[in-house]
Amino acid sequence: MPGGRFLVPGNHGVGLSSVVASRGLVRILIVYGSGDGQTAKVAERVVEYLGEFGHAAEAFDVGGLPDGFDPASYDVVVGASIHVGRHQKRVRSFVRAHREALETLPSGFVQVSLSAAVDDEAHRTEAMGYVDDPVEDTGWHPDAVAVLGGALRDSAYGFITRTLMKSIARVQTGDTGTSRDDEYTDWDEVRQFAEEFGAVVEEQRALRAAAESNAGEGEGPRE
Fold first, then answer.
1. Among the ranges given (27-41, 43-57, 113-127, 208-222), the one the predictor scored with the smallest mean pLDDT
2. If one looks up domain 16-150+185-219 in CATH, what number appears?
3. What are the boundaries of each domain within the chain?
4. Which of 6, 11, 89, 115 is at 20 to 30 A from 30, Cα to Cα?
């Protein structure tokens, strides 16, 4: 999904306001930053899986959000990848700007990195350490978190970037292969995250509905 423009998969050129107007059921937004495209692919798959669990969702590149965008009317999943030890600046800025709304409504965080590609304690600790950064930096506490392996796309890199990324991959994954595209994302984990976040959304919506119902009963009959 291209960055810099606010596009809807399958509805190119349609902005968020048009989506909301025509799709009143859309209540979950996946707002992501993606370096080489893997986080965008993950975001689209989360949308697909949420749909299977009965939730209408859309994915948007954080770089294309319109000025004044307010996520308070939605349940939000934030997606980010790790580059040089940090999440994308635009993603961090989005979380800081909307921390209050993210804390109030159901929210989730999906992190994509090569550190999560290897299932051992050292790499798990490193990957989870990156998750702690936005929490400490912004005070945001997501209701559901997924830490996922990323991808290497040699075919999309220039020589210098390819050499650098292969060096990183050798350290992170032990992979010494060259001249190929490698994907380390566990799609079963993506599906599990979507299911867990959908459950959080359903639970919190039920609690809000019960609270509103109780408040209405407490007002008593009007004369």
1. 113-127
2. 3.40.50.360
3. 16-150+185-219
4. 115
* Tally of residues, the chain: 223
Read off the tokens for 174: 């032990």
Amino acid at residue number 33: G
Q: Is there a contact between 6 and 66 (Cβ–Cβ < 8 Å)?
A: yes
Within 10 angstroms of residue 34's Cβ, the number of other Cβ atoms is: 23
Residue type, 64: G
Highest mean pLDDT of the ranges 97-111, 114-128, 136-150, 209-223: 97-111
* Pairing outcome for strands 151-153 and 107-113: unpaired
Contact 24, 74 (CB under 8 A): no
Cα–Cα distance, 129 to 134 (Å, whole number): 10
Which two three-digit tokens encode residue 60? 């948007």
Q: At 72, list the tokens.
A: 């308070």
Rounded CA separation 64/114 (Å): 26
Q: Round to whole Å and give the CA distance between 76 and 149.
A: 21
Q: How far is CA 198 from CA 52, 61, 66, 101, 116, in A?
A: 10, 21, 26, 18, 23
The answer to whether 15 and 61 have CB atoms below 8 angstroms apart is no
Question: Measured between alpha carbons, how far is 162 from 57 in angstroms, rounded to an integer?
Answer: 34
Reported as a single tens digit per residue, the pLDDT across 177-196 is 555 667 889 999 999 999 99
